[in-house]
């Protein structure tokens, strides 16, 4: 079968249309694939932007601008620059590692049983009581003992708390608000939970922060959040643990000289 020139032109145009449809634009002879728009829109959507014709038009122009600048950078020989090469390699590694971690999490999802176990563990550690405590923190044990003597003599705790090293609570008279014992370091928690309402520690409590005088104001039943309220945070934490364990296992298995 012999094609006439007009017929041949029609065939060539028909073949070219699908290829052109796959490209966003052609800049100085170099094609920008349309799939790159979808990738950038997907990335922007994950950051909260709404997919729309306006967004896609903006992305199209951005990709064209980038291609123009890329070509100029390559023409200037910057692609051969050692520092640029290093930065490109670091960026390539970051993208691949991120893709690897996303793939690992997808293939190793956190189970409901793991979430429940983590929730039960946190609830047990928090305990069933909350304590409303005040404290005064000083650097030296002798200073703490002097404050205790003043308290025994009738001085107001809130006034003496103004000299506390813990500036956050000092401005509030030493008030630490309601908290579970697990919130504090062990030595502090043990001293606090041993007090009765209205009592203060009559010997300084030593922690890594210094010496504390603790006063217990009140105790109440703990208000622990429901599983539904904290499930997203638990899942995120367990995913991070899985990823860290995976990374450590890979490094341990690797032959490093």
From TrEMBL:
It comes from Undibacterium rivi. Pfam families: Rotamase_2, SurA_N_2. Residues 128-218 form the PpiC domain. Residues 1-21 form the signal peptide. PROSITE patterns: PPIC_PPIASE_2. This is peptidylprolyl isomerase. Belongs to the PpiC/parvulin rotamase family. PANTHER family: PEPTIDYL-PROLYL CIS-TRANS ISOMERASE HP_0175-RELATED (PTHR47245:SF2), PEPTIDYLPROLYL ISOMERASE (PTHR47245). It catalyses: [protein]-peptidylproline (omega=180) = [protein]-peptidylproline (omega=0). It comes from the Bacteria. GO terms for molecular function: peptidyl-prolyl cis-trans isomerase activity. The keyword Lipid metabolism does not apply. Its EC number is 5.2.1.8. Keywords: Isomerase, Rotamase, Signal.
């Amino acid at each position: 079968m012999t094609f006439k020139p007009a017929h041949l032109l029609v065939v060539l145009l028909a073949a070219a249309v699908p290829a052109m449809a796959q490209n966003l634009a052609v800049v100085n002879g170099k094609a920008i694939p349309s799939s790159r728009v979808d990738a950038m829109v997907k990335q922007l959507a994950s950051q909260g932007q709404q997919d729309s014709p306006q967004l896609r038009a903006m992305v199209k122009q951005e990709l064209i601008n980038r291609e123009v600048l890329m070509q100029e950078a390559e023409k200037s020989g910057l692609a051969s620059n050692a520092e640029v090469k290093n930065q490109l390699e670091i960026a390539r590694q970051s993208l691949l590692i991120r893709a690897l971690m996303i793939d690992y999490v997808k293939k190793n999802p956190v189970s409901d049983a793991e979430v429940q176990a983590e929730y039960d563990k946190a609830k047990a550690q928090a305990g069933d009581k909350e304590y409303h405590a005040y404290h005064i923190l000083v650097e030296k044990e002798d200073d703490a003992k002097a404050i205790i003597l003043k308290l025994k003599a009738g001085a107001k705790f809130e006034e003496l708390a103004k000299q506390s090293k813990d500036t956050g609570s000092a401005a509030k008279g030493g008030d630490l608000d309601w908290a579970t014992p697990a919130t504090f370091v062990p030595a502090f928690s043990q001293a606090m939970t041993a007090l009765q309402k209205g009592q203060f520690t009559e010997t300084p409590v030593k922690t890594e922060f210094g010496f504390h005088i603790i006063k217990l104001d009140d105790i109440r039943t703990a208000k622990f959040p429901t599983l539904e309220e904290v499930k997203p945070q638990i899942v995120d934490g367990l995913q991070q643990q899985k990823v860290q364990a995976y990374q450590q296992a890979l490094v341990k298995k690797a032959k490093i000289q």
